[in-house]
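Weekly structure sync - notes
Attendees: PM, LS, DV (DV joined late)
Agenda: review two folding runs queued last week.

Item 1: First target. Sequence and structure tokens pasted below for the record.
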Amino acid sequence: MAEFGWNPRRLTAVKPELPEGMSPPGTRGRILHAALGLFAEYGFHGTSIRDLAAAVGINSATLYSHYPAKEDILASLIELGHSGLVAGLRTALSTVDDSPARQLAALVRAQVLMHADYPLLALVANTELHALSPEKAASSLALREQARALLYDVLRRGVAAGEFDAATDPILAGIAIGSMGVRVATWFGPDQPYAREQVADTFAVYALRLVGSKH
């Protein structure tokens, strides 16, 4: 068995990636990519407009012509992260039947793969949301609630159908399962001895065990 190597600084070497087809074209897209790398490395408050402009190769005035404020750049990134996750979860559910066990496994796999494929986006979306004003955070919070609702609905139906342990608390189980997937973004990468599909499949098994699935 390969020895696990924990490298908490690995994320700083990952290339900023956004889901295909979701990043705006041209300079706006370049700004988001540059901001993603800087926000993941230094945090929202540790990154200045000058830093962003320099990373893109433009001046601050040009940057402001695309985004009114630094907060708007962060809001766009966080919304991209959440909308990509919700889309992935809905697609995953559409590929399986109405069995709660299969749906739970599909949801967990989709979440893990999203966090494995776009770790910097997941990191920024989950750790920098607090930096947004309530108005700028509203759309992302609504998307987050949609993702939670998809999971909680499957867990509730699994308990009601007898597929999951009757003692399972859907809310607490959902928090535990969701947290497990979120952490993938902080360690998964090509420097680790696991394939993305292996991690997704294994975490799905863990989730099913957590709720006492009979399947």
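Item 2: Second target, run right after the first with the same settings.
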Amino acid sequence: MRTPSLDDLAVFLVVCKASGFRAAARQLGLSPSHVSDTIARLESQLALPLFTRNTRSVMPTEAGRALAERMAPLLEETLAVLSDVTSAGRDVKGFLKLNVPHAVMVDILPPLLDGFRKQYPAVQVEIVVDDRLVDFIAEGCVAGIRYGEHLAQDMVSVPIGPARQQVALCAAPSYLQERGTPQHPRDLLHHDCIRLRFSSGALSAWTFERGAEHLTLDPPSPLVLGVNAAAAAIDLACAGQGFIYTFRNWLQPAIDRGALVAVLPDWWQAFDGPRLYFSSRSMPAVLRAFIDFLALARTH
């Protein structure tokens, strides 16, 4: 058996993910015939079929699936090693693609990206904003940012942004004057509330706690906006449309200027801040530079 080239194995993995030669060819910028010839050469070198083909689809065989599952992390680590070696002793360059929730895009991640880009102007950064708990590697990202997600065994994480955050309940002075101020979270069941919906389809939870008492409410919601329209939801709350319960750091500017009033602060729930997570088996130079930048930013 001749040892296949890394280039051929990389093409094989793209075909597996794309489930077809034409789709893989579009992703790779190659012709379908070139991709087909590459797979045929690889199958000849390994002396076994890697795909079953018909007129509508291309699916990996059992041997093909086994090869893809084992080769994907190995090839990723090999490319990371090559990137580190070629980047050593010179300015950091490359592509940093992150999968992040909308919550960090309001006031946590943008200033960090600004500082990172000023320090590493040769790095190209792409941010994929998605509130679903997707596999960031499958989405082509080198790392992701999450809140309190259980990490797989081969994942590690580092803090990014504040170590602790809090949700806050607020309403406009005009609304409180007209409808009254709740004395207990359950009173919200008799008020208008502005809710946020994640891209997964789930409504943001209204969970309150004080001492040993803990409760989650599903209050009336005459207004529901996508979480990517949180700024509009806050504006509507300032206009007197109802209560809003979301990240305190999002609401604080409106509280400071008197457009919103803090309500039931003793019940506001605190939680751990966001974390950057990534595979322990792969550390491209550009990701290492970003992690080092985050560590330095937290000390200032």
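Discussion on item 2: The two ends are 56 Å apart (CA to CA).
Action: LS to circulate a short write-up before next sync.
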